[in-house]
User: Fold RidA family protein from Rubellimicrobium roseum.
Amino acid sequence: MDDIEERLRALGLELPEPAAPLAAYVPFVRAGDLLHMSGQIARDGTGVIRGTLGQDLDAEAGARAARACGLHVLAQVKAACEGDWGRLLRVVKLTGFVASAPGFFDQPKVVNGASELMVEVLGDRGRHARSAVGVTALPLGAAVEVEAVVLLR
Assistant:
């Protein structure tokens, strides 16, 4: 659906190239109508967004990192759909992993960055169930990682 591309443009967003796997796994697996996506770490135009929430970064910076993860999720969805957004029925679930210092409890606020992006870009198809989990470390020192389950036609 071109409306997704139009929304991305209207929001001033550009999807990154889908990230290649860092180890022995694939970016996504389709099982029936469900697309299970591997975790997408926070990256921007300069590389991995690194840090620990509550130590190096605050919740607002973490939400920006989660938003970047969300863009990578959308890039993988587009790749899985071979560019045909009409195959996307809805985002079913996001799981956000937040590199957290002891005593940092705002993981839900951080993962909102990805959740809000899904609704901004996809409308009601972007509303989803979610988990926000604090962890001690993520691959490459990333601040946030987001994985997704998406329903396709």
User: Anything to note?
Assistant: The chain has a mean pLDDT of 96. The chain is about 30% helix and 30% strand. The CA atoms of residues 81 and 87 lie 6 Å apart. The beta strands are 28-31, 34-41, 43-44, 47-48, 88-99, 129-135, 144-152.
